[in-house]
Amino acid sequence: MNFAHSDNATSLIARMQSFMQEHVIPAEQTYAAQLRGGADWTQWQQPPVMEELKAKARAAGLWNLFLPEDGARLSNVDYAPLAEITGRSMIAPEVFNCNAPDTGNMEVLVKYGSEEQKQRWLKPLMAGEIRSAFCMTEPEVASSDATNMQASAILEGDEVVLNGRKWWSSGIGHPNCKVLIFMGLSDTSADKHQQHSMILVPLDTPGVKIERMLPVFHTLDEPYGHGEVSFTNVRLPLSSIIGGLGRGFEIAQGRLGPGRIHHCMRAIGAAEFALELLCKRAIQRVAFGKPLAKLGGNADIIANARMAIEQARLLTLKAAWMMDTVGVKGAMSEISQIKVIAPNVATQVIDAAMQMHGGAGLSDDFPLTALYAYARVLRIADGPDEVHRGLIAKLELKRQAKRLGISN
Ligand SMILES: Cc1cc2nc3c(=O)[nH]c(=O)nc-3n(C[C@H](O)[C@H](O)[C@H](O)COP(=O)(O)OP(=O)(O)OC[C@H]3O[C@@H](n4cnc5c(N)ncnc54)[C@H](O)[C@@H]3O)c2cc1C
């Protein structure tokens, strides 16, 4: 295994770190002050400072770094430390045009989009001029199993007609969100993995209705939001179908190519930041005549956090290295392993940091509750832990049975 950074990545790491210190971190308070929240999501606005930061990041060449096909052409091993750096700030991913679900949607269009689709949607997405949403999950079915999706995408003459209800459509409340990718059943008689299709839907198409925004840990996550969306006789030309009918499942699998572990990389950055805050507090705050670091089992808590982060980072890099060397298919077990480990380590470390801060850790004076919510959400939003464990066990049993020459 070789996790050494290329010269290009080494230079990008230094530039990204100084950009974060110089521009992103100091802008966080302005961003929060400019954010217009509230239950009426139609009033949400893009904080102007975000557009200023995006322009600066683009000019600095720190733009679309996630996309292997374009620009920096980074390997997964090289992208990992860059994504980790952005894990320190909730606003950083958008600044560098590297935030979900746009990253996955752009990858879909790069891989499966027609020329027309690329011109109309990929180009402005890559320029950061518009945002997008991904509508797969449905309230009525267990959506951790993508074959369960019930919403329909049926051919009628020279149109495809969409019906159904989706939820947890992240980013759909953003004022710049102009398009979504809808996954629907197009042929129930086909093979289980060829029944679904993916359709590009302009957000202002008649029949698309955002019913509400779902709160997560008591916040609406504005200006992005997570919408429940109904589709009623939504009619679109056949040119809206991505890659051809029946390829929805294949695209859903391919959608998260390299993007599969972006969140893991970022979760390590969130954990690292939480440990930094934890240590600062433990050194500076005194109780019962001693710094907190010297009280009770706090030294063990610090040591355990450091060990857990190192293990998680190494496994993230191993998964990235395997994706680079043997491809996503050969790295399936490692990808699932890190998807369980990274958010779990991050939640544990952030939780310990909140505890070390006492009441302050639960306030908005520190970013810990936001970091915690981000990491905790991943244990479901990036696929439930249990589903990943199921795959790891299945692959392990297969491998062991083959090695032992026994049937499984
Ligand atoms: C904040 C947030 C953002 C999201 N963003 C998006 C988005 O942009 N687009 C989108 O389409 N979806 C999005 N999702 C949805 C997310 O992908 C789903 O919630 C997830 O796939 C689980 O589906 P489900 O909620 O239907 O849970 P279910 O499938 O009902 O599963 C519920 C629970 O059952 C258990 N379980 C399920 N399968 C197994 C198994 N095989 N073995 C053991 N236990 C199991 C697990 O404990 C699991 O958590 C988001 C979710 C959240 C919370």
Automatic annotation (TrEMBL):
<dbReference type="Pfam" id="PF02771">
    <property type="entry name" value="Acyl-CoA_dh_N"/>
</dbReference>
<keyword id="KW-0560">Oxidoreductase</keyword>
<dbReference type="Pfam" id="PF00441">
    <property type="entry name" value="Acyl-CoA_dh_1"/>
</dbReference>
<dbReference type="InterPro" id="IPR009100">
    <property type="entry name" value="AcylCoA_DH/oxidase_NM_dom_sf"/>
</dbReference>
<keyword id="KW-0285">Flavoprotein</keyword>
<dbReference type="InterPro" id="IPR006091">
    <property type="entry name" value="Acyl-CoA_Oxase/DH_mid-dom"/>
</dbReference>
<comment type="subunit">
    <text>Homodimer.</text>
</comment>
<dbReference type="InterPro" id="IPR046373">
    <property type="entry name" value="Acyl-CoA_Oxase/DH_mid-dom_sf"/>
</dbReference>
<feature type="domain" description="Acyl-CoA dehydrogenase/oxidase C-terminal">
    <location>
        <begin position="246"/>
        <end position="394"/>
    </location>
</feature>
<dbReference type="Pfam" id="PF02770">
    <property type="entry name" value="Acyl-CoA_dh_M"/>
</dbReference>
<feature type="domain" description="Acyl-CoA oxidase/dehydrogenase middle">
    <location>
        <begin position="133"/>
        <end position="234"/>
    </location>
</feature>
<dbReference type="InterPro" id="IPR037069">
    <property type="entry name" value="AcylCoA_DH/ox_N_sf"/>
</dbReference>
<keyword id="KW-0274">FAD</keyword>
<dbReference type="InterPro" id="IPR009075">
    <property type="entry name" value="AcylCo_DH/oxidase_C"/>
</dbReference>
<dbReference type="InterPro" id="IPR050741">
    <property type="entry name" value="Acyl-CoA_dehydrogenase"/>
</dbReference>
<dbReference type="GO" id="GO:0005737">
    <property type="term" value="C:cytoplasm"/>
</dbReference>
<dbReference type="GO" id="GO:0003995">
    <property type="term" value="F:acyl-CoA dehydrogenase activity"/>
</dbReference>
<dbReference type="GO" id="GO:0050660">
    <property type="term" value="F:flavin adenine dinucleotide binding"/>
</dbReference>
<protein>
    <submittedName>
        <fullName>Acyl-CoA dehydrogenase family protein</fullName>
    </submittedName>
</protein>
<comment type="similarity">
    <text>Belongs to the acyl-CoA dehydrogenase family.</text>
</comment>
<dbReference type="InterPro" id="IPR036250">
    <property type="entry name" value="AcylCo_DH-like_C"/>
</dbReference>
<feature type="domain" description="Acyl-CoA dehydrogenase/oxidase N-terminal">
    <location>
        <begin position="13"/>
        <end position="129"/>
    </location>
</feature>
<dbReference type="InterPro" id="IPR013786">
    <property type="entry name" value="AcylCoA_DH/ox_N"/>
</dbReference>
<dbReference type="GO" id="GO:0033539">
    <property type="term" value="P:fatty acid beta-oxidation using acyl-CoA dehydrogenase"/>
</dbReference>
